[in-house]
Amino acid sequence: MDEMHSHVEKIHNTPHKSVVAVSGAGTQAVAWLLGVAGASRTVLEAIVPYGRESMTAFLGFEPEQSASAQTAKYMARAAYRKAKTQLEDDFPAVGLSCAATIATDRPKRGEHRAYVSAWDEQANTLYSLNLHKGLRDRAGEEELVSRLLVHALMLLSGLDSDVDLGITAGDTLEIERTEHPPILAQLLSGEAQWVVVRDGDMLAEGDAPLSLLPGSFYPVHRGHRGLVSSAQSILGADIGYELSVTNVDKPALEEREILKRLAQFNTNETVVLTRAETFFKKSRLFPARTFVVGWDTAIRLVAPRYYDDDPETMMIALAEMLASGTRFLVAGREDQGVFRTLQDVPVPEGFAGLFRDIKEDQFREDVSSTQIRDSQ
């Protein structure tokens, strides 16, 4: 229709790039967006996770309810993250979602409702729509929900919206805008899975380097930087530092301590903050990465006691990491007066491909954070 064509044209003329995910209703909005010339400037991807398996694959977990406000928020967040990972330029990414249950070819006991969630870098706006049950057929309810999606995307794209939603006195629409918490708070709460710190800026779930040196960095010392330099020469790639704010044996780091540790790094060094206290979790967050580790860490990677004393669990974890493209570049370390290397690590049969060593003449630095702390 001409009216909707005009609204969509305006959206396509903005720099915003969106991933749209709809379930239960909203497919008409997708058709409108894709049916107007210039759609490729706006829509990175349109997803319809209708079935349980599809929704679980999209979110990474199975939501408690398919048509709920929380599920719509999860979907919008996942859509936003998907948009961010696809953008290399400085275009603003947005995620738009709908989780709905509307009229079907059989009577429904519950309410006919739709939740539309609009997610950008600053905030999430949730539109909770209860439809006047029995007033419209499925096509009519689908059109109203789709109009709401276009309205939300116009506002999300920085436009004024004059979309006629067609809401009647029997319908209710509630709108709630929630500003995102500060980036570190997002990480600590689990809303953000990782944070990239680079050039003095923090970015939630930004691009992480292809190689990472994990550590507690308490404190950072010449061994860390020397190892990064050697690894860069071997791998031919930039190395980032990865700091998990959670630990298997210790309380999670508080914001003040995180900032204190970050202050040790130079502005040209990249630090990735995570909540992944094990390499199995790190490899799931960052598949196909090379992790630069010391001999003592490599030993723990192949020790069943770090997998609940279950050798089978360890083998499954190692197999998943190998299949995902995870690799470990192992530097030697002194242990009780003996310089230990990858050759001293009891790598299980079939998993040698996970590991690669750094020769002693390429890197050796007999210093540790523990020694430095003990000497202070």
SSE succession: HEHEHHEEEHEHEEEHEHEHEHHEEEEH
From the alpha carbons, calculate the radius of gyration and give it in angstroms. 25 Å
Please list the strands of the largest sheet in the order they lie side by side.
Answer: 8-7-11-10-9-12-13-16
CATH topology of the largest domain: Rossmann fold
Share in helix: 25-40%
Which CATH architecture of the largest domain? 3-Layer(aba) Sandwich
Poorly predicted regions are none
Beta-strand share of residues: 15-25%
Globular, elongated, flat, extended or rod-shaped: what is the shape?
Answer: elongated
Largest sheet: 8 strands, mixed
Q: What's the count of strands? A: 16
> Termini distance?
74 Å
Question: CATH class of the largest domain, please?
Answer: Alpha Beta
How many separate domains make up the residues? 2
Mean pLDDT, all residues: 92
**How many H/I helices?**
12
